[in-house]
Amino acid sequence: MNSALRLATSAIRTTAPLRAYTVRNTSFNGFRAYSTAKTQTLKERFAELIPGEQEKVKKLRKEHGKKVIGEVTLDQVYGGARGIKSLVWEGSVLDSEEGIRFRGKTIPECQQLLPKAPGGKQPLPEALFWLLLTGEVPSEQQVRDLSAEWAARSTIPKFIEELIDRCPPDLHPMAQLSVAITALEHESSFAKAYAKGLNKKDYWLYTYEDSMDVIAKLPTIAAKIYRNVFKDGKVADVQKDKDYGFNLANQLGFGDNKDFVELMRLYLVIHSDHEGGNVSAHTTHLVGSALSSPMLSLAAGLNGLAGPLHGLANQEVLNWLVAMKKEVGDDISDESIKNYLWSTLKAGKVVPGYGHAVLRKTDPRYVSQREFALEHLPEDPMFKLVSQVYNIAPGVLTEHGKTKNPYPNVDAHSGVLLQYYGLTESSYYTVLFGVSRALGVLPQLIIDRALGMPIERPKSFDTKHYAKLVGATL
Q1: 3-state DSSP assignment of residue 23
Q2: What is the assigned CATH class of domain 311-421?
Q3: Which end of the chain is more exposed for a tag (fewer CB within 10 A), N or C?
Q4: 26-28 and 19-23: which strand pairing?
């Protein structure tokens, strides 16, 4: 490992867990660097791992590059490329029966193994980010150092504050988030270095720096949007001795509720990554493959996340539940829910929060939120309604016959938890999803640049050519 990389870092000394950090900056390749005297930083560890990963990929392609790993049907081509094996995504793999694994670890395993805040039960988002980037479970000290580094990088430029302030309050919060992240391109070290002539070997360093800066600033940006649109416009400062989940909750205005803080930690972890084929992940990867900065790449992914068939679904689920409750009244019977489900389907609509492109069982992310609700809000009427729907909807959808997976996904539960704690503005929910998704897609962007992944450019044909390929006559 480069000796400069070992030495040209700074110290973050702690006097108590997640408290009282003193940050001393030095520089590495022109960047501020953060570390403790005793623990290895994330950047240092990732730099150590790069040569081995590069060699692994090189050997795999050299020895097996010509082997066929699947086939493509015409249905897949016209069906949204479902199931086509064509992307490399290191952070997570989604199994249709087992659900998501982050670097091979299930959600319960992550909840058990990843470091937590003092007194907390849920894994810290910082720990998951480390895991996604390196494939390794970090130490508690490494996670605390990363918390301090993100807090130290969290200040947003004045022009970003002014830009958000000038957005009309009825502009959707996701559009405001996209505008703000796009504007952060002004601060991109990758874009500036590339314009001056950047060595390919250093692409990952600048991608890393931009990614760390964006992630660090996201809570303040997200909170600014929330407080502007729904509250008084005032946003609390980042507390430099606190973790990422706490600061997001606190800046939103819920820092005094320790259960909500724990919910934010869980929310940020489980919504972060869902392999590379979903719209937000694939879009971020695709735009990044053109060597667009992490700011532009993430903004593109967030625009995809804002779609009703992707991240906006968590907003739609709560609206659907509220509409159901309004129509059938307070005395909600199984029969009334069953009738409402059928009325939704017969109107040509989908049941929001149910079904998934890959999963064929109840989403483990749904299960983790249900377990949280059973512990913290078992008597909440909306949670009871969600549980009732959970018992009834799969049977109705199976009878309907047009859904391959009749079970709930992550969106079916998150809105109910948020509204219980007072965050009732459902149009804002996807912004929280976006903050979380950044923690999943940006590690892969760093890995892409470290491994020298090329621009993505699949081949396309028109319908006449496809017909010719399969021997059809149009």
Answers
A1: strand
A2: mainly alpha
A3: C
A4: unpaired
For the chain, report the end-to-end CA distance as a whole number of angstroms: 60
pLDDT digits (tens, 9 = 90+) for 154-168: 999 999 999 999 999
Burial class (CB in 10 A: 0-12, 13-18, 19+), 166: exposed
Hey, is 312 helix, strand or coil?
coil
- How many CB atoms neighbour CB 162 within 10 A? 9
Summarised one tens digit per residue, pLDDT across range 414-473 is 999 999 999 999 999 999 999 999 999 999 999 999 999 999 999 999 999 999 999 998
- CA distances from residue 309 to 4, 93, 392, 433 in whole angstroms, order as listed: 47, 21, 23, 14
Q: Which residues share a beta bridge with 9?
A: none
Which among 450, 31, 48 is positioned nearest to 8, based on CA atoms?
31
The tokens 């403790």 sit on which residue? 36
What pLDDT, in 10s, does the model give residues 89-138? 999 998 877 889 999 999 999 999 999 999 999 999 999 999 999 999 99
Which range has highest mean pLDDT (287-301, 303-317, 326-340)? 287-301
Give the closest residue to 242 by CA, choosing from 14, 9, 398: 14
What residues contact 96, with CB distance under 8 A and at least 6 apart? 358, 359, 360, 361
Cα distances (Å, whole numbers) of residue 404 to 96, 407, 413: 11, 9, 20
Does this model's pTM top 0.85?
Answer: yes
Structure tokens at 257: 């509720």
DSSP H helices in 256-400: 258-270, 279-289, 294-305, 313-328, 334-346, 364-376, 381-400
Residues involved in catalysis: 310, 356, 411
46 close to 134: Cβ distance less than 8 angstroms: yes
Element (H, E) at 216: helix 203-230
**Number of neighbouring beta carbons within 10 Å of residue 117:** 25
**How big, in percent rounded to 5, are the helix, strand and coil portions of the chain?**
60, 5, 35
- Measure the CA–CA gap between 226 and 236, rounded to whole angstroms: 12
Domain ranges for the chain: 311-421
